[in-house]
């Protein structure tokens, strides 16, 4: 089981305060990693406390992921404090729903910034740092995990900005893998199916839409945040050493239907 161990490694995580991001962060801590949490503010200490209860280190850095200026200094702040980042998990995301013909510009801009541009900035800046790290005995320098979506493949309904952003995340993941896989940085993405979290409250509260979604999921249920712990450890560890450029769906069989 050593190939799944994250002992001695440090992961920087966005979107770790709740939902699948929280469970992914906890999973990596359970596997031995220390965690740097990027949050809007320090008021939510729940994930940090859960990680520390596991005997791992947890630190919080604040940044507004909707602000290009705020994100631009994040990685340098973390590195200047002496942290050695082995793993990047980009999980933060927002959702805005409107019919496409009346979708507001400001919602479009915010969704694209948080869900795509910020991911690129963090991949670029942390990727640049990883390229300077001394590779291990297998030539490995780091792991990057982005969170894509089913709408990386499908268009969705009333979510044109989210679909555009998540389609971009999938292609960005492949583009970075093409450049960095030979240099020891594995870049992959996880595409969650329908998950019972706050982001999908509108769907869960729509009886007709919720029932139609459930009817198409071969597993017969919506996902829970805990369903993403194993795949995170896999993509963050040596177990996935020859996996790069993949968009791994965790969807209860939805895409195979």
Automatic annotation (TrEMBL):
InterPro entries: KR_dom, NAD(P)-bd_dom_sf, Sc_DH/Rdtase_CS, SDR_fam. This is Ketoreductase domain-containing protein. GO terms for biological process: secondary metabolite biosynthetic process. Belongs to the short-chain dehydrogenases/reductases (SDR) family. The keyword NAD does not apply. Gene3D superfamilies: NAD(P)-binding Rossmann-like Domain (3.40.50.720). Keywords: NADP, Oxidoreductase. Residues 9-193 form the Ketoreductase domain. The keyword Ribonucleoprotein does not apply. GO terms for molecular function: oxidoreductase activity, acting on the CH-OH group of donors, NAD or NADP as acceptor. It comes from the Eukaryota.
């Amino acid at each position: 089981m050593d190939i799944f161990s994250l002992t001695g490694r440090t992961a920087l995580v966005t979107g770790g305060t709740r939902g699948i991001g929280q469970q992914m962060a906890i999973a990596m801590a359970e596997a031995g990693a220390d965690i740097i949490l990027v949050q809007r503010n320090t008021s939510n200490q729940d994930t940090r406390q859960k990680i520390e209860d596991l005997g791992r280190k947890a630190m919080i850095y604040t940044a507004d992921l909707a602000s290009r200026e705020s994100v631009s200094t994040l990685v340098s702040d973390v590195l200047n404090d002496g942290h050695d980042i082995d793993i990047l998990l980009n999980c933060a995301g927002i959702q805005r729903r409107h019919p496409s013909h009346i979708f507001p510009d400001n919602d479009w801009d915010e969704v694209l910034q948080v869900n795509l541009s910020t991911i690129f900035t963090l991949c670029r800046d942390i990727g640049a740092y990883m390229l300077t790290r001394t590779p291990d005995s297998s030539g490995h320098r780091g792991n990057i995990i982005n969170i894509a979506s089913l709408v990386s493949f499908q268009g969705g309904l009333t979510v044109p900005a989210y679909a555009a952003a998540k389609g971009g995340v999938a292609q960005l993941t492949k583009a970075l893998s093409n450049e960095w896989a030979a240099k020891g940085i594995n870049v992959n993405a996880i595409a969650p199916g329908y998950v019972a979290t706050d982001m999908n409250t509108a769907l869960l509260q729509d009886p007709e839409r919720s029932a139609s979604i459930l009817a198409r999921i071969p597993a017969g249920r919506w996902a829970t945040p805990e369903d993403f712990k194993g795949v995170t450890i896999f993509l963050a560890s040596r177990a996935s050493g020859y996996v790069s450029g993949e968009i791994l769906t965790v969807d209860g069989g939805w895409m195979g239907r």
